[in-house]
Amino acid sequence: MKYLNLALLVLFPIAWFAPLLRAAILPIFGMDEISVITGLQSLWESDTGLALLVTFLAIFAPYAKTIGLALLHWNLLSPRTLPALEIMGKLAMADVFLIALYIVIVKGAGHVTVETAWGLYLFTACVLASILISWKSKPEA
Hints:
5 helices; 3-stranded antiparallel sheet; mainly alpha; single chain; elongated
């Protein structure tokens, strides 16, 4: 599990820059790819408070949890920190839910085309793998 966790240190940044979805008002004009990073860039221009929250949920929470689990696996962090790391993982999963919600809302609007892209699956897999690693890292009672 500790090597899978180390792989997440590489996979999370890839997932942040990978296209989560493609969207267009009219698909005739081409579709724009949206990633976690491009979405954050747009949020910073329009709503700084929401951008701070999403930056924490999408980037800092999952990465801090992954680093914490790596330190735990290599006996550099106390096992008593595991509950806090699990909370960080749950906060990161909230971001995947928000993305799914946005897709449903946008698909309900007329003349808008939205397609999911491979980055959404990679990002979701990273978050779920992180939750699994956290669950498997619990000390046996």
